[in-house]
Write a structure and sequence with these properties.
By secondary structure, the protein is an alpha/beta fold. The protein is built from 14 helices and 20 strands. The protein has helices at residues 4-7, 15-18, 34-47, 81-93, 112-120, 164-181, 196-209, 241-252, 256-267, 291-294, 301-310, 343-349, 355-368, 371-374, and strands at 10-13, 52-55, 59-61, 68-74, 97-102, 106-107, 157-158, 185-188, 214-217, 237-238, 280-282, 314-318, 376-382, 386-393, 396-403, 409-414, 419-422, 428-430, 435-440, 445-450. Helix 3 (34-47) packs parallel to helix 4 (81-93), helix 8 (241-252) packs antiparallel against helix 9 and helix 11 packs parallel to helix 13. The chain is elongated, with a radius of gyration of 23 Å. It starts with a helix and ends with a strand. Keywords: Glycosidase, Hydrolase. One of its GO terms (biological process) is carbohydrate metabolic process. One of its GO terms (molecular function) is hydrolase activity, acting on glycosyl bonds.
Length: 452
């Protein structure tokens, strides 16, 4: 039987951006921005069919959220702990699970343990909490000692996860977020930098505390099975950046072979190296350019999201992208990827007003057809510009057809001789002679379900 996190579609929120919080935390009074999420965005998220939210970072920080200063306090730019408790409560009442960012590879320089080292140097009882501490050196921030920093960013000091005290402290942080807020999972920031024993211990700790707790890791390159899998020593899932790249470049270059090859490699029935795994699928997120900016033809948003939802994996949509907004990294910064949005305004001025409805269709299919979650994947038709695949489980079958050409396309898709229904329009087509004949518009996509 599937777990909730395998069946869910995730809505991804970067709250500092969405809620228009200042990019620097200057301290001072708490500003209660969370009620906007609770009162306005939660109903919107529910209505689109999402059954889970990944939100973060939330820990108190000095700037972008990944420079943690207090692991047990919601960032004052967003609200307080009570605001978040209420948000989770209301989400749960709507049937929506909540997953938060776990930033455990590094902390900010204002975190209590780092401050103690700055003040006491070698007399600090926390001097083993960070990697590469050297009191004969100095840092780019002139701390009076040197230390390992994440990618050379001096304000992100790397924690020593081999130290038992550090591990126990962070495990206690997770306990706190489960006990205090009843969260349902954690997305591990920089999972490809974390110590494997730490992740194994975290999985044991969380499963003992909440049996269906989900752990998903941010991993960009490498063999995803090193980090995720059914083994109790691993995370449940990781980000599928390999597929993300193909989703936009395969459309821009009119080369569906790129996407199909990725899926064969990952999930092919015979040789797929990640068969049985549920990787986290996305078209964009808070670290990469918006999919609407990456695609040369905006019509391709339709087949891209059909693949995000219907290919093997756990689908995710980044806030605002359901409206087709654009955004690119500017001057090496991510602010343009993380804009403040007013929901009422977006609903009136969405660049792609049809897209929300398409996501609702895809969510409904996925909710009603278990083949979309656990069914086998089968490639049915493949050319540079047309692609069709099926998901099959017992008698349940779903077919997906896509066309990246600038012209309409006639497709003859291998299918059982039966009646098939277009999930978007409700039109029914009968397959005959083992083929389903469909016509797709330029840049179009369609999903067909077998009529029982």
């Amino acid at each position: 039987m599937s777990k909730w996190y395998e069946e869910a579609e995730f809505y991804h929120i970067y709250p500092i951006g969405l809620l228009g919080a200042p990019r620097r935390n200057e301290g001072g009074e708490t500003v209660h921005r969370f009620p906007v999420l609770t009162e306005k965005w939660l109903p919107h998220i529910r209505d689109l069919g999402f059954r889970a939210i990944y939100i973060g970072p939330l820990f108190e920080s000095a700037a972008h959220g990944y420079d943690t200063t207090d692991y047990k306090q919601v960032d004052r730019r967003l609200g307080d702990n009570q605001d978040f408790q209420y948000f989770v409560q209301k989400a749960h009442e709507m049937g929506i699970k909540i997953v938060v960012d776990g930033v455990f590879n590094h902390t900010g320089r204002d975190f209590f343990a780092f401050r103690d080292i700055r003040e006491k140097k070698w007399d600090s009882s926390y001097k083993n909490w960070y990697k590469g501490i050297n009191f004969d050196g100095n840092s780019s921030c002139n701390d009076g000692f040197s230390y390992e920093s994440w990618h050379g960013c001096g304000d992100l000091a790397v924690l020593n996860l081999y130290d038992p005290a550090v591990r126990e402290y962070l495990f206690g942080v997770v306990d706190f977020w489960i006990d205090e807020f009843d969260i349902d999972g954690i997305r591990l920031d920089c999972a490809d930098c974390l110590e494997f024993g730490f992740m194994e211990g975290l999985r044991r700790r969380t499963e003992a505390k909440k049996a269906d707790f989900w752990l998903m890791g941010e991993v960009i390159h490498g063999d995803y099975s090193r980090w995720a899998g059914p083994d109790q020593s691993k995370l449940h899932s990781v980000t599928n950046y390999e597929l993300w790249k193909g989703l936009y470049s395969g459309h821009n270059s009119h080369n569906y072979f790129e996407i199909a090859h990725t899926i064969r490699r990952e999930f092919g029935n015979e040789w797929g190296i990640y068969r049985g795994m549920k990787l986290y699928t996305f078209a964009d997120n808070h670290d990469v350019n918006r999919i609407a900016s990456l695609l040369e033809d905006k019509r391709h948003l339709k087949p891209v999201y059909a693949m995000v939802y219907m290919l093997p994996g756990i689908p995710s949509v980044y806030y605002g992208s359901e409206f087709g907004i654009e955004g690119r990294k500017e001057n090496g910064g991510d602010d343009a990827l993380r804009p403040a949005l007013e929901l009422d305004e977006m609903e009136k001025t969405a660049p792609q007003p049809w897209l929300c409805g398409w996501l609702q269709v895809l969510s409904k299919i996925r909710r009603e057809h278990p083949a979309c979650v656990n069914g086998s994947y089968q490639e049915l038709l493949l050319t540079n510009r047309q692609y069709a695949f099926g998901r099959f489980q017992d008698k349940d079958a779903v077919l997906v057809a896509a066309n990246n050409d600038g012209e309409p396309a006639d497709l003859w898709i291998p299918a059982a001789d039966a009646e098939w229904e277009d999930a978007e329009t409700g039109a029914r087509i009968r397959a005959e002679g083992g083929k389903l004949h469909v016509n797709l518009p330029a840049g179009g996509a369609a999903v067909y379900t077998a009529v029982s």
